[in-house]
Amino acid sequence: MQRLWLNCHAATMAGGRYSIIEDAALVSRDGLIEWIGPRAQLPAGEYAESHDLDGAWLTPGLIDCHTHLVFGGDRSGEFEQRLEGASYAEIAAAGGGIASTVRATREASEGELLSGALQRARQLLSEGVTTLEVKSGYGLNLAAERKMLRVVRLLGEMLPLTVRSTCLAAHALPPEFAGRADAYIDQVCREILPELAGEGLVDAVDAFCEHLGFSPAQVERVFQTATALGLPVKLHAEQLSSLHGSSLAARYRALSADHLEYMDESDVIAMAAAGTVAVLLPGAFYLLRETRLPPIDALRRHGVAMAVASDLNPGTSPALSLRLMLNMACTAFRLTPEEALAGVTLHAARALGLHASHGSLEPGKVADFVAWQIQRPAELAYWLGGDLPKRVIRHGEEITHG
Ligand code: NIG
Ligand code: FE
């Protein structure tokens, strides 16, 4: 089906950077963008359907490229503990933190995990998110990691969203392996990753490189296994301290390294050379009341693409709004609204390896876009959350109106 979309402006992100077309038109056909440009240059012809967008601003469908939205249990009590002065590391050392979500996730049925995950994914969807990444990492054994990743696949089948699944089996040490981190990494490499990859449940492999998580040497073994399985890698790196995980990620041509508050310039240079995307997660920065900023100027200077994501998870970032993350990326990290918007479209697509098909409005890419009833694109980062009037189009079909 061919459709013409008219009476709009577009922040296209074409050519790999923030770029706009005033008084634009877009033609979609069979789920793809067939043509986009200034309305005055629209090729003459008959279009099966024409949609008046009432002066809206088009952006690519938003992409949340880092979430942990499948989980069991509740950690709002830890939020209260932190407000009373406990640190994330202290709570983790006392058996809370990731370990508490692991217990609850192992106990939950697939149906229970699915219903919570659907609720959270719908919140993102209602904001104009059309592509979503979700990580495992609260199962930490074969059966529970499989259960999580099956739920991730179900989200993609049940919702009008493109969903990418990332296996984060190397997120934390499960209690049954206490004191035996290398033995757990053996299990991840010999059993968990090969099995789950063989079942088609894994699009990418992630790990948590941190004193609380795994050492660079352990992460490297996970990366070697992923590479042997033909899977791209990503890494939680430099969130709480500097272990040069982001340089390690770059050596393995990682799609992204994420968090990055404690990275140094040598890490930035390594990521620039490898084309690894820096995924900034202002929700976790905010909730942990972190004061050390990711080195935004160095990332800019060296030309590292910066994505922005929610990190939606029950511990450090219960963020149900990607647009709020745009505001926080600007206010806390000093991104410009244009950089932040490119961070949830263009660069987020690259962080998922989807840049050939997603992340910008260009002929041949999927027709995933949002028509926002706003005066200027900067408004997407300006409003603190809330529901902006918009129409969401995925694969050329309108999925919401309001
Ligand atoms: O991205 N850094 C590690 N993983 C998550 C937190 C997970 C949790 O606390 O449950 C993050 O911040
Ligand atoms: Fe995370």
From TrEMBL:
<feature type="binding site">
    <location>
        <position position="68"/>
    </location>
    <ligand>
        <name>Fe(3+)</name>
    </ligand>
</feature>
<feature type="binding site">
    <location>
        <position position="313"/>
    </location>
    <ligand>
        <name>N-formimidoyl-L-glutamate</name>
    </ligand>
</feature>
<comment type="pathway">
    <text>Amino-acid degradation; L-histidine degradation into L-glutamate; N-formimidoyl-L-glutamate from L-histidine: step 3/3.</text>
</comment>
<keyword id="KW-0369">Histidine metabolism</keyword>
<dbReference type="GO" id="GO:0050480">
    <property type="term" value="F:imidazolonepropionase activity"/>
</dbReference>
<keyword id="KW-0963">Cytoplasm</keyword>
<feature type="domain" description="Amidohydrolase-related">
    <location>
        <begin position="58"/>
        <end position="397"/>
    </location>
</feature>
<feature type="binding site">
    <location>
        <position position="66"/>
    </location>
    <ligand>
        <name>Fe(3+)</name>
    </ligand>
</feature>
<dbReference type="InterPro" id="IPR005920">
    <property type="entry name" value="HutI"/>
</dbReference>
<feature type="binding site">
    <location>
        <position position="311"/>
    </location>
    <ligand>
        <name>Fe(3+)</name>
    </ligand>
</feature>
<keyword id="KW-0862">Zinc</keyword>
<dbReference type="InterPro" id="IPR006680">
    <property type="entry name" value="Amidohydro-rel"/>
</dbReference>
<feature type="binding site">
    <location>
        <position position="315"/>
    </location>
    <ligand>
        <name>N-formimidoyl-L-glutamate</name>
    </ligand>
</feature>
<feature type="binding site">
    <location>
        <position position="171"/>
    </location>
    <ligand>
        <name>4-imidazolone-5-propanoate</name>
    </ligand>
</feature>
<feature type="binding site">
    <location>
        <position position="311"/>
    </location>
    <ligand>
        <name>Zn(2+)</name>
    </ligand>
</feature>
<dbReference type="InterPro" id="IPR011059">
    <property type="entry name" value="Metal-dep_hydrolase_composite"/>
</dbReference>
<comment type="similarity">
    <text>Belongs to the metallo-dependent hydrolases superfamily. HutI family.</text>
</comment>
<feature type="binding site">
    <location>
        <position position="68"/>
    </location>
    <ligand>
        <name>Zn(2+)</name>
    </ligand>
</feature>
<dbReference type="InterPro" id="IPR032466">
    <property type="entry name" value="Metal_Hydrolase"/>
</dbReference>
<keyword id="KW-0408">Iron</keyword>
<feature type="binding site">
    <location>
        <position position="138"/>
    </location>
    <ligand>
        <name>4-imidazolone-5-propanoate</name>
    </ligand>
</feature>
<feature type="binding site">
    <location>
        <position position="75"/>
    </location>
    <ligand>
        <name>4-imidazolone-5-propanoate</name>
    </ligand>
</feature>
<feature type="binding site">
    <location>
        <position position="138"/>
    </location>
    <ligand>
        <name>N-formimidoyl-L-glutamate</name>
    </ligand>
</feature>
<comment type="function">
    <text>Catalyzes the hydrolytic cleavage of the carbon-nitrogen bond in imidazolone-5-propanoate to yield N-formimidoyl-L-glutamate. It is the third step in the universal histidine degradation pathway.</text>
</comment>
<feature type="binding site">
    <location>
        <position position="236"/>
    </location>
    <ligand>
        <name>Zn(2+)</name>
    </ligand>
</feature>
<feature type="binding site">
    <location>
        <position position="239"/>
    </location>
    <ligand>
        <name>4-imidazolone-5-propanoate</name>
    </ligand>
</feature>
<feature type="binding site">
    <location>
        <position position="236"/>
    </location>
    <ligand>
        <name>Fe(3+)</name>
    </ligand>
</feature>
<feature type="binding site">
    <location>
        <position position="66"/>
    </location>
    <ligand>
        <name>Zn(2+)</name>
    </ligand>
</feature>
<dbReference type="Pfam" id="PF01979">
    <property type="entry name" value="Amidohydro_1"/>
</dbReference>
<keyword id="KW-0378">Hydrolase</keyword>
<keyword id="KW-0479">Metal-binding</keyword>
<protein>
    <recommendedName>
        <fullName>Imidazolonepropionase</fullName>
        <ecNumber>3.5.2.7</ecNumber>
    </recommendedName>
</protein>
<feature type="binding site">
    <location>
        <position position="316"/>
    </location>
    <ligand>
        <name>4-imidazolone-5-propanoate</name>
    </ligand>
</feature>
